[in-house]
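Notes from the 1:1 (GR / supervisor)

We went over the backlog. Supervisor wanted to see one worked example end to end before approving the batch request, so GR pasted a single chain during the call. The sequence is below; no edits were made to it. Supervisor asked that the structure be written out right there so they could see what the output format looks like.
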Amino acid sequence: MCQVSCKYRCYYLSILLKIQQLQSQLVTKEASLQEVKSELEIYRENNARQSSKIQTLKAQVKELEEIATSVTSVKSQSGAYIYTLKRKNHELSERVSELEKHLRMLLVRREKAEQKAASLEKKLAEVTDKLSSSMNIDIKGQEDPLGFLEKDEAVLTKKTFERNNTILSERLKDKQIAWDNCCQELLHKEKKFTELDRILHASIYETKTTQTLYQTFISQLATLLSNTFITMAGTEEAIKERIQEICGSEHSWKSVLCHPDLSLKATHQGIFVLGKKKCQMLTAGIQIFYSISCIKKTHPLLMQVNSQREKIKMKNWQIEQLIEKIKQFEKGKEQQVCLNVGQDPQSLKAQKETEKLQEQLKEMKMSNQTHQAKFVSVNDLKNKTIEELSKFWEKVEKIKEKAVRKVVSLKTELDYTEHEARKEKERAHHMLEAVTNELHLVDFREAITKIMKFPINTLAISDKEIIRQLKQLIQAYEISKVTSNNESKLSCGFTTGFENQ
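Structure output shown during the call:
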């Protein structure tokens, strides 16, 4: 019995140690589960943050779309100024290089002059030696043996050399000052470039007037089509009605020049309708493509997230059940401690249950690892989708820029067609005036021919003949008037003379 009791105690102690180990493992598992839960909460927070970031990115993309249209105008203005600054900078750099070349040339000349001076000193020493040998003069104790012969010339050469050295040093100083000034100018230009960049960034945020480009175009058309009696509303239907009214009112003179005006009107309306349809098709296609791509990309991610959440809930439930089972097992062990000998089958059952629990814990570890890997893959997918969405937004921005350029080109074409239509209207008006003047002349000529009793059907009569006939009539009228005046004077004189008698 003592041996059995000792064996049982040893076995019981080993079981207790295993239970403690399992408890410690469970504690670690609980800690790992809490970490997983914290990671899940962090993942949810990251999802919320990423969704908010996506919304902010969408807002930023819209702002950038608005800014991009304004940047083009600002760049066109600042590009010319920057080009001039770059050109001046290039000129200054060329000038600096020229000055450097000139400095190098002066330094080379200075070195040559020094070499010449050294060679001249050597020659002078040789000449003095020769003179001393020829004149039998001892030069060893004398500092200047030829002082009595060439003292003045040496002084003059020395002064010239000193003068040349001073001039060269002054030139070097001037070149150094010019170099410093050029460096300062370059620094000043760099500061100006930085200021211009800052002004550009500030103007990007300030210039948002290009949003109303289409509306201003419609308002300009409305103002052009409005009169003092009629005020046009800034809508497309009102503008079309007004254009139709103008076309109807000008039908009289368009009958003379029908074909060019009709072709201009058809081209004008066709270009306007094509530009509008193209803009509408581009915007609709971009919106549909963006919505479809976003739905296709986000739907599988949402399905994966929902499935992962459901799996995590199931695992949490299984873990809770395991914890309850472990608690029940601990209670059974406490009861077994209170019991006496004869409990070998129960201990075997306890061992089996502990083994099962260990296997279940291993499975839970594996499942947690797989879930973590899946979470990492889901995060990678989300990052990839965000990058793809950003790339897609960049493509959309490029498409919108192209659409804006097309609208601008269509607007220029419309302005050009309107300008040509106005010119053709003016030409037609001048032609009508010329035709009316010619018709008036023809009517006047026909009236004169009727008065002069010329044949009406014969239009071969020259203007000179008609003028000659008119001159004859006017002369005859003047003669008749003069004779009538003379007769009246004679009658008056006869009556006055008769009365006097």
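Supervisor's comment: The chain is about 90% helix and 0% strand.
Batch request approved.
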